[in-house]
Amino acid sequence: MYSIPENTMKVLWITNIMFPEARQLLEGNREFKASGGWMLGAADALLLRSDIKLTVATVSTKVKSLTRLDGNRITYYVLPMGRGNQRINPEYESLWKQVNSEVRPDIVHIHGTEFSHGYAYMRACGSDNVVISIQGMTSACYHYYYYGMTKFDIYKNLTLKDFLKGSIIDQRRHFKKRSCYELEMLRMARHVIGRTSWDRTHVWAINPEVEYHFCNETLRPEFYDGSMWSYEKCDKHTIFLSQAGYPIKGLHQLLKAMPLILSHYPDTTIRVAGGDITKCDSFKDWLHFSGYGRYIKSLIHRLHLTGKVRFIGNKNAEEMKREYLASNVFVCPSTIENSPNSLGEAQILGVPCVASYVGGIPDMMKGNEDNLYRFEEVEILAKKVCKVFTNAEKQSNMILTATKRHNPSINSRQLYSIYQSIINALCLPL
User: Fold this and answer.
1) Are residues 75 and 41 in the same domain?
2) Enclosing domain of residue 354
3) Prediction pTM value
4) How far is CA 326 from CA 34, 112, 233, 240, 312, in A?
């Protein structure tokens, strides 16, 4: 028999990233650029409830032993990374038992399926009160890791970094290994949380007996201030990408479409958030120069795109919002995605969006299907972008749809309801 606390629901989150507050407590008064914005937004919304006690646990190389940190509203546990986040670390299981005995969670929410520490918790503590959030479905994504590139493209552009730390092919192999944890976790799972027909289908294919709970994601709070894209205020013929550090994000396909776009709009430019992966001006740059960066650099040269692509560096939420609003079109050219938050952020601001028809993206583009294209058809991508440039003011406005989909209050209530339903089921007599 499992008992529900009279007043407070004790929730344990297991994450793949460390919250900024935990980093500050662990490493001192430093400013950190937050990752995992969807989790931060969900936590903020959930903690508006007075009957929630939230504990967040993750792993880090910054600790040598299990470390507890007491934040303002959240208690954190940090496990040592040990021999690597991607391999089974036997120490995890004993540490998770200790965390579990101290927290005594009513519900355990594992964010993501592809890391060994989440799998270790389930092995050590069971899965009855565990729910797993689907993020990217690594077991499905690794097939498309360098889609749109040939092995000749990869081998021709190998760099020192590739030889020392692994090429794109090695990275894909690494993705495939990570998928093993995902498969085992999902086979053990009794409950999962997803948000697209794509992730629901892939979960069903792995474990048809698992109970699937639908819940949309909450975006970073900076995107809820009512800011709205305007054609009059945007930089005309500017394409914005939220990231392009590795092949899945599809920058190479957009570059292939650019000559056709430029033949109609010669002043078109691409702005890419994140570090310049093509930079190789110093010895330090050379050491960090990847094969994919070299391939992108070669495409820019071969397609005469010099000066047309600008990497604008890492941006915080406010800076990203300004980039979205300044662009003429946001393009999501990914080889595979579930539900990219970047697309949701662009939509909630009213930015015209063009996206590849892959994974869960079609679910996010309902009402704007005309701006979808097959990933491999760069000519169609070029046509869709040119259409936006020509008729930007007449584009389907996705603000209302995105606002409803990413509503923090609605999503928080739905998440709490999922937690409560799992706990209630555990309370039923066997």
Assistant:
1) yes
2) 222-405
3) 0.91
4) 22, 32, 7, 9, 13
